[in-house]
Design a protein that fits this description.
It is a single chain. The protein is mainly alpha-helical and about 80 residues long. It has one domain (about 15-70). It is about 55% helix and about 10% strand. The chain has helices spanning about 15-20, 20-35, 40-45, 50-60, 65-70, and strands at about 5, 10. A two-stranded antiparallel sheet has the order 1-2. Strand 1 and strand 2 (about 10) form a beta hairpin. Helix 2 (about 20-35) crosses helix 3 and helix 3 packs across helix 4 (about 50-60). The chain is globular. About 15% of the residues are buried.
Length: about 80
């Protein structure tokens, strides 16, 4: 059932702007690259790191290069 808050109606789960908009996801990805951390980028953008990681995956952006170096190559 929809909940109404003033003139805004919300219906269940809504995707983050990063999940819904590739341009926003790319901007967040560049920020994560620059900061060297998905967590730091998420904090600066007012979201969570799982939301950013899901958006990066959905839009085929992968994992930032700095995060790949931190976690190794997976070999």
């Amino acid at each position: 059932m929809a909940q109404s808050r003033g003139s805004v109606s919300t219906v269940g789960w809504q995707p983050s702007r990063f999940l819904a908009d590739r341009g926003e996801a790319e901007r967040a990805f560049r920020l994560a690259e620059r900061l060297g951390s998905v967590n730091a980028a998420a904090a600066e953008l007012g979201t969570t790191w799982p939301s950013l990681r899901k958006a990066f995956q959905r839009h085929g952006l992968g994992m930032s290069a700095r995060n790949l170096r931190r976690f190794g190559s997976g070999r």
